[in-house]
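FAQ
Q: What does a multi-component entry look like?
A: The components come first, one per line:
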Amino acid sequence: MKTNLPLWEVFIRSQHGLAHKHVGSLHASDGEMAINNARDVYTRRNEGVSIWVVPSAAIVASSPVDKEPLFAPATSKIYRHPTFFPMPDAVKHI
Amino acid sequence: MTAMAMKNTMQTPKFTYLTRLGDTALILSQRMSEWCGKGPALEEDMALANTALDLLGQSRLWLSYAGEIERAGRDEDALAYLRGDREFRNFLLVELPNGNYADTMTREFYFDAWHALALAALTRSTDPRIAEIAVKSQKEVTYHLRRSSDLVVRMGDGTEQSHDLIQAAVNALWPYTGELFQSDAVDADMVESGEGFDPALLKPEWQNYVAQVFSVATLAVPEAGAWMQKGGKQGIHSEHLGYLLAEMQVLQRANPGAKW
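Then the predicted structure of the entire assembly, as C-alpha coordinates:
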Protein backbone atom coordinates (compact mmCIF):
# COMPACT_ATOMS: atom_id res chain seq x y z
CA MET A 1 0.00 0.00 0.00
CA LYS A 2 1.51 3.28 -1.09
CA THR A 3 1.49 5.94 1.55
CA ASN A 4 1.68 9.60 0.60
CA LEU A 5 1.97 10.91 4.14
CA PRO A 6 5.00 13.15 4.69
CA LEU A 7 8.26 11.70 6.01
CA TRP A 8 9.59 12.65 9.44
CA GLU A 9 13.02 12.14 11.00
CA VAL A 10 13.02 10.82 14.56
CA PHE A 11 15.48 11.75 17.31
CA ILE A 12 15.43 10.02 20.70
CA ARG A 13 17.22 10.96 23.90
CA SER A 14 17.90 8.02 26.16
CA GLN A 15 17.52 8.10 29.92
CA HIS A 16 21.26 8.46 30.44
CA GLY A 17 21.97 10.61 27.42
CA LEU A 18 22.44 14.31 26.98
CA ALA A 19 21.60 14.67 23.31
CA HIS A 20 18.86 13.43 21.02
CA LYS A 21 20.22 10.89 18.57
CA HIS A 22 18.82 10.20 15.14
CA VAL A 23 17.24 6.73 15.14
CA GLY A 24 15.27 6.56 11.92
CA SER A 25 12.29 7.91 10.07
CA LEU A 26 8.58 7.28 9.66
CA HIS A 27 5.48 8.50 7.85
CA ALA A 28 2.77 10.51 9.60
CA SER A 29 0.28 13.19 8.70
CA ASP A 30 1.14 15.65 11.48
CA GLY A 31 3.35 16.15 14.53
CA GLU A 32 1.08 14.45 17.04
CA MET A 33 0.73 11.34 14.93
CA ALA A 34 4.48 11.35 14.33
CA ILE A 35 5.16 11.40 18.07
CA ASN A 36 2.76 8.49 18.67
CA ASN A 37 4.27 6.48 15.82
CA ALA A 38 7.79 7.23 17.03
CA ARG A 39 6.79 6.05 20.48
CA ASP A 40 5.41 2.80 19.00
CA VAL A 41 8.24 2.09 16.59
CA TYR A 42 11.37 3.50 18.23
CA THR A 43 10.88 3.22 21.98
CA ARG A 44 9.80 -0.40 22.31
CA ARG A 45 12.97 -1.49 24.09
CA ASN A 46 13.25 1.39 26.48
CA GLU A 47 15.44 3.34 24.09
CA GLY A 48 14.44 6.74 25.31
CA VAL A 49 12.55 9.24 27.40
CA SER A 50 12.25 12.11 24.96
CA ILE A 51 11.22 12.23 21.31
CA TRP A 52 11.83 14.91 18.72
CA VAL A 53 10.23 14.59 15.30
CA VAL A 54 11.16 16.88 12.44
CA PRO A 55 9.64 16.91 8.95
CA SER A 56 12.36 15.55 6.68
CA ALA A 57 11.71 18.44 4.32
CA ALA A 58 12.87 20.85 7.05
CA ILE A 59 16.29 19.29 7.27
CA VAL A 60 19.06 20.99 5.33
CA ALA A 61 22.06 18.72 4.84
CA SER A 62 25.55 19.33 3.52
CA SER A 63 26.25 17.84 0.15
CA PRO A 64 28.78 14.95 -0.12
CA VAL A 65 30.37 16.81 -3.01
CA ASP A 66 31.41 19.56 -0.55
CA LYS A 67 33.22 17.15 1.78
CA GLU A 68 36.69 18.36 0.68
CA PRO A 69 36.35 22.13 1.02
CA LEU A 70 34.17 21.93 4.13
CA PHE A 71 35.99 19.37 6.30
CA ALA A 72 39.51 18.64 4.97
CA PRO A 73 41.16 21.82 6.37
CA ALA A 74 40.39 20.74 9.94
CA THR A 75 42.24 17.43 9.79
CA SER A 76 45.77 18.68 10.44
CA LYS A 77 45.38 21.58 12.81
CA ILE A 78 46.40 20.03 16.12
CA TYR A 79 46.69 23.46 17.77
CA ARG A 80 42.87 23.59 17.77
CA HIS A 81 42.71 20.65 20.16
CA PRO A 82 42.98 21.42 23.89
CA THR A 83 45.60 18.72 24.53
CA PHE A 84 48.78 20.70 25.29
CA PHE A 85 48.09 21.61 28.91
CA PRO A 86 49.47 19.26 31.56
CA MET A 87 46.45 18.55 33.76
CA PRO A 88 46.90 17.99 37.49
CA ASP A 89 45.65 14.58 38.66
CA ALA A 90 42.84 16.08 40.69
CA VAL A 91 41.07 17.50 37.65
CA LYS A 92 41.87 14.70 35.19
CA HIS A 93 38.31 14.19 34.09
CA ILE A 94 37.29 17.79 33.60
CA MET B 1 -12.35 -31.29 31.82
CA THR B 2 -13.96 -34.44 33.20
CA ALA B 3 -16.99 -34.23 35.45
CA MET B 4 -14.85 -35.51 38.32
CA ALA B 5 -12.28 -32.76 37.82
CA MET B 6 -15.02 -30.12 37.66
CA LYS B 7 -16.35 -31.21 41.04
CA ASN B 8 -12.97 -30.76 42.70
CA THR B 9 -12.33 -27.23 41.49
CA MET B 10 -13.12 -24.12 43.47
CA GLN B 11 -14.87 -21.99 40.87
CA THR B 12 -15.62 -19.18 43.19
CA PRO B 13 -17.03 -15.86 42.03
CA LYS B 14 -13.49 -14.50 42.25
CA PHE B 15 -12.25 -17.11 39.80
CA THR B 16 -14.99 -16.17 37.34
CA TYR B 17 -14.27 -12.47 37.88
CA LEU B 18 -10.57 -12.91 37.11
CA THR B 19 -11.23 -15.03 34.02
CA ARG B 20 -13.54 -12.30 32.71
CA LEU B 21 -10.67 -9.83 32.86
CA GLY B 22 -8.07 -12.31 31.61
CA ASP B 23 -10.19 -13.77 28.81
CA THR B 24 -11.25 -10.34 27.55
CA ALA B 25 -7.60 -9.24 27.33
CA LEU B 26 -6.59 -12.54 25.74
CA ILE B 27 -9.27 -12.58 23.06
CA LEU B 28 -8.75 -8.94 22.13
CA SER B 29 -5.02 -9.58 21.98
CA GLN B 30 -5.62 -12.47 19.60
CA ARG B 31 -7.81 -10.29 17.38
CA MET B 32 -5.22 -7.49 17.29
CA SER B 33 -2.51 -10.01 16.45
CA GLU B 34 -4.43 -10.93 13.31
CA TRP B 35 -3.40 -7.55 11.90
CA CYS B 36 0.31 -8.39 12.22
CA GLY B 37 1.89 -7.94 8.81
CA LYS B 38 -1.39 -6.67 7.34
CA GLY B 39 -1.60 -3.18 8.84
CA PRO B 40 -2.34 -0.22 6.57
CA ALA B 41 1.09 1.25 7.28
CA LEU B 42 4.28 0.03 8.95
CA GLU B 43 3.81 2.34 11.92
CA GLU B 44 0.23 1.17 12.48
CA ASP B 45 1.30 -2.46 12.20
CA MET B 46 3.82 -1.91 15.00
CA ALA B 47 1.29 -0.05 17.13
CA LEU B 48 -1.28 -2.83 16.81
CA ALA B 49 1.29 -5.50 17.60
CA ASN B 50 2.43 -3.52 20.64
CA THR B 51 -1.16 -3.22 21.85
CA ALA B 52 -1.71 -6.94 21.32
CA LEU B 53 1.41 -7.76 23.32
CA ASP B 54 0.41 -5.42 26.15
CA LEU B 55 -2.98 -7.12 26.37
CA LEU B 56 -1.42 -10.55 26.25
CA GLY B 57 0.86 -9.64 29.15
CA GLN B 58 -2.12 -8.44 31.16
CA SER B 59 -4.11 -11.58 30.41
CA ARG B 60 -1.18 -13.69 31.64
CA LEU B 61 -1.30 -11.87 34.98
CA TRP B 62 -5.07 -12.24 35.36
CA LEU B 63 -5.23 -15.88 34.26
CA SER B 64 -2.24 -16.95 36.36
CA TYR B 65 -3.97 -15.52 39.40
CA ALA B 66 -7.24 -17.19 38.41
CA GLY B 67 -5.45 -20.52 38.13
CA GLU B 68 -4.02 -20.10 41.62
CA ILE B 69 -7.43 -19.20 43.05
CA GLU B 70 -9.09 -22.20 41.40
CA ARG B 71 -6.60 -24.67 42.92
CA ALA B 72 -7.29 -27.29 40.26
CA GLY B 73 -3.75 -27.36 38.95
CA ARG B 74 -4.54 -25.21 35.92
CA ASP B 75 -2.00 -22.55 35.06
CA GLU B 76 -2.34 -19.66 32.59
CA ASP B 77 -1.56 -21.90 29.62
CA ALA B 78 -4.11 -24.54 30.58
CA LEU B 79 -6.75 -21.86 30.97
CA ALA B 80 -5.87 -20.16 27.70
CA TYR B 81 -5.40 -23.19 25.49
CA LEU B 82 -7.51 -25.99 26.87
CA ARG B 83 -10.88 -24.46 27.71
CA GLY B 84 -13.84 -24.60 25.35
CA ASP B 85 -15.78 -21.56 24.24
CA ARG B 86 -18.51 -22.03 26.85
CA GLU B 87 -15.87 -21.62 29.57
CA PHE B 88 -14.53 -18.34 28.26
CA ARG B 89 -15.87 -15.25 29.99
CA ASN B 90 -14.79 -12.42 27.73
CA PHE B 91 -17.07 -9.61 26.55
CA LEU B 92 -18.78 -10.25 23.21
CA LEU B 93 -17.33 -6.96 21.94
CA VAL B 94 -13.76 -8.24 21.81
CA GLU B 95 -14.47 -11.49 19.96
CA LEU B 96 -16.07 -9.74 16.98
CA PRO B 97 -14.10 -10.01 13.73
CA ASN B 98 -11.63 -7.29 12.85
CA GLY B 99 -13.44 -6.04 9.77
CA ASN B 100 -11.78 -3.00 8.26
CA TYR B 101 -9.54 -0.56 10.11
CA ALA B 102 -12.47 1.62 11.18
CA ASP B 103 -14.21 -1.42 12.68
CA THR B 104 -11.05 -2.47 14.54
CA MET B 105 -10.31 0.99 15.94
CA THR B 106 -13.92 1.61 16.96
CA ARG B 107 -13.94 -1.69 18.85
CA GLU B 108 -10.62 -0.73 20.41
CA PHE B 109 -11.89 2.74 21.37
CA TYR B 110 -15.11 1.48 22.97
CA PHE B 111 -13.10 -1.07 24.93
CA ASP B 112 -10.16 1.16 25.92
CA ALA B 113 -12.50 3.82 27.30
CA TRP B 114 -14.07 1.17 29.55
CA HIS B 115 -10.74 -0.51 30.34
CA ALA B 116 -9.15 2.70 31.60
CA LEU B 117 -12.07 3.31 33.99
CA ALA B 118 -12.20 -0.33 35.11
CA LEU B 119 -8.50 -0.46 35.92
CA ALA B 120 -8.72 2.81 37.83
CA ALA B 121 -11.46 1.24 39.95
CA LEU B 122 -9.43 -1.96 40.42
CA THR B 123 -6.41 -0.08 41.74
CA ARG B 124 -8.59 0.45 44.79
CA SER B 125 -9.37 -3.25 45.22
CA THR B 126 -8.99 -4.68 48.71
CA ASP B 127 -7.10 -7.56 47.11
CA PRO B 128 -3.50 -6.34 46.83
CA ARG B 129 -2.70 -8.65 43.93
CA ILE B 130 -5.61 -7.32 41.88
CA ALA B 131 -4.62 -3.74 42.71
CA GLU B 132 -1.03 -4.47 41.68
CA ILE B 133 -2.04 -5.93 38.31
CA ALA B 134 -4.33 -2.96 37.75
CA VAL B 135 -1.61 -0.42 38.49
CA LYS B 136 0.78 -2.08 36.04
CA SER B 137 -1.88 -2.40 33.33
CA GLN B 138 -2.99 1.20 33.71
CA LYS B 139 0.31 2.46 32.34
CA GLU B 140 -0.25 0.56 29.12
CA VAL B 141 -3.97 1.22 28.79
CA THR B 142 -3.55 4.98 29.22
CA TYR B 143 -1.60 4.93 25.99
CA HIS B 144 -4.03 2.53 24.27
CA LEU B 145 -6.87 4.94 24.97
CA ARG B 146 -4.86 7.94 23.79
CA ARG B 147 -4.08 6.15 20.54
CA SER B 148 -7.54 4.82 19.77
CA SER B 149 -9.19 8.17 20.64
CA ASP B 150 -6.77 9.94 18.33
CA LEU B 151 -7.52 7.55 15.47
CA VAL B 152 -11.28 7.80 15.94
CA VAL B 153 -10.99 11.58 15.62
CA ARG B 154 -8.74 11.28 12.56
CA MET B 155 -11.08 8.89 10.80
CA GLY B 156 -14.28 10.66 11.84
CA ASP B 157 -13.06 14.12 10.94
CA GLY B 158 -11.13 12.83 7.96
CA THR B 159 -12.26 12.18 4.43
CA GLU B 160 -15.86 11.48 3.47
CA GLN B 161 -14.96 7.82 2.98
CA SER B 162 -13.28 7.44 6.35
CA HIS B 163 -16.15 9.24 8.04
CA ASP B 164 -18.76 6.95 6.48
CA LEU B 165 -16.82 3.81 7.37
CA ILE B 166 -16.28 4.74 11.00
CA GLN B 167 -19.83 5.97 11.51
CA ALA B 168 -20.99 2.59 10.21
CA ALA B 169 -18.65 0.87 12.69
CA VAL B 170 -19.82 3.08 15.56
CA ASN B 171 -23.43 2.08 14.86
CA ALA B 172 -22.73 -1.61 14.25
CA LEU B 173 -20.69 -2.10 17.44
CA TRP B 174 -22.91 -0.01 19.71
CA PRO B 175 -25.16 -2.95 20.74
CA TYR B 176 -22.07 -4.68 22.16
CA THR B 177 -21.15 -1.87 24.51
CA GLY B 178 -24.02 -2.44 26.92
CA GLU B 179 -22.44 -5.64 28.23
CA LEU B 180 -19.52 -3.63 29.61
CA PHE B 181 -21.84 -2.11 32.21
CA GLN B 182 -24.06 -5.06 33.11
CA SER B 183 -23.74 -6.40 36.65
CA ASP B 184 -24.58 -9.92 37.75
CA ALA B 185 -24.24 -11.97 40.92
CA VAL B 186 -20.48 -12.37 40.47
CA ASP B 187 -19.98 -8.60 40.23
CA ALA B 188 -22.22 -8.05 43.26
CA ASP B 189 -20.17 -10.58 45.23
CA MET B 190 -16.90 -8.88 44.36
CA VAL B 191 -18.29 -5.43 45.17
CA GLU B 192 -19.38 -6.69 48.59
CA SER B 193 -15.89 -7.95 49.41
CA GLY B 194 -14.40 -4.71 48.12
CA GLU B 195 -12.25 -6.61 45.65
CA GLY B 196 -14.20 -5.59 42.55
CA PHE B 197 -16.26 -2.72 41.23
CA ASP B 198 -19.84 -2.27 40.04
CA PRO B 199 -19.71 -1.95 36.25
CA ALA B 200 -22.91 0.11 36.11
CA LEU B 201 -21.14 2.91 37.95
CA LEU B 202 -18.68 3.36 35.11
CA LYS B 203 -21.38 4.04 32.55
CA PRO B 204 -21.94 7.82 32.93
CA GLU B 205 -18.24 8.62 32.71
CA TRP B 206 -17.80 6.30 29.75
CA GLN B 207 -20.74 7.81 27.92
CA ASN B 208 -19.41 11.31 28.61
CA TYR B 209 -15.98 10.51 27.28
CA VAL B 210 -17.31 8.76 24.18
CA ALA B 211 -19.65 11.69 23.48
CA GLN B 212 -16.76 14.14 23.82
CA VAL B 213 -14.52 12.27 21.41
CA PHE B 214 -17.34 11.70 18.94
CA SER B 215 -18.15 15.39 19.01
CA VAL B 216 -14.60 16.27 17.96
CA ALA B 217 -14.71 13.46 15.41
CA THR B 218 -18.01 14.79 13.97
CA LEU B 219 -19.59 11.38 14.64
CA ALA B 220 -23.15 10.80 15.76
CA VAL B 221 -23.56 8.99 19.09
CA PRO B 222 -26.03 6.09 18.69
CA GLU B 223 -29.22 5.99 20.73
CA ALA B 224 -28.62 5.55 24.45
CA GLY B 225 -31.56 3.24 25.11
CA ALA B 226 -30.80 0.83 22.29
CA TRP B 227 -31.10 -2.92 22.86
CA MET B 228 -27.83 -4.43 24.02
CA GLN B 229 -26.22 -7.80 23.37
CA LYS B 230 -25.07 -9.84 26.34
CA GLY B 231 -23.93 -13.29 27.37
CA GLY B 232 -20.16 -13.22 26.96
CA LYS B 233 -19.58 -12.76 30.67
CA GLN B 234 -21.73 -15.84 31.32
CA GLY B 235 -20.04 -17.99 28.69
CA ILE B 236 -22.68 -17.66 25.97
CA HIS B 237 -20.75 -16.51 22.93
CA SER B 238 -21.25 -15.63 19.30
CA GLU B 239 -20.18 -18.05 16.58
CA HIS B 240 -17.00 -16.02 16.09
CA LEU B 241 -15.33 -17.24 19.27
CA GLY B 242 -15.36 -20.87 18.14
CA TYR B 243 -13.28 -20.14 15.06
CA LEU B 244 -10.94 -17.84 16.97
CA LEU B 245 -10.27 -20.47 19.63
CA ALA B 246 -9.77 -23.19 17.02
CA GLU B 247 -6.96 -21.15 15.51
CA MET B 248 -5.53 -20.07 18.85
CA GLN B 249 -5.62 -23.48 20.50
CA VAL B 250 -4.92 -25.88 17.66
CA LEU B 251 -1.20 -26.17 18.34
CA GLN B 252 -1.54 -27.04 22.02
CA ARG B 253 -4.43 -29.38 21.42
CA ALA B 254 -2.65 -31.22 18.60
CA ASN B 255 0.59 -31.44 20.57
CA PRO B 256 -0.40 -31.51 24.25
CA GLY B 257 2.25 -30.14 26.56
CA ALA B 258 4.42 -28.94 23.66
CA LYS B 259 7.29 -26.72 24.71
CA TRP B 260 10.07 -25.10 22.74
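Q: Is there any commentary attached?
A: Sometimes. For this entry: The longest helix of chain A spans residues 31-42.
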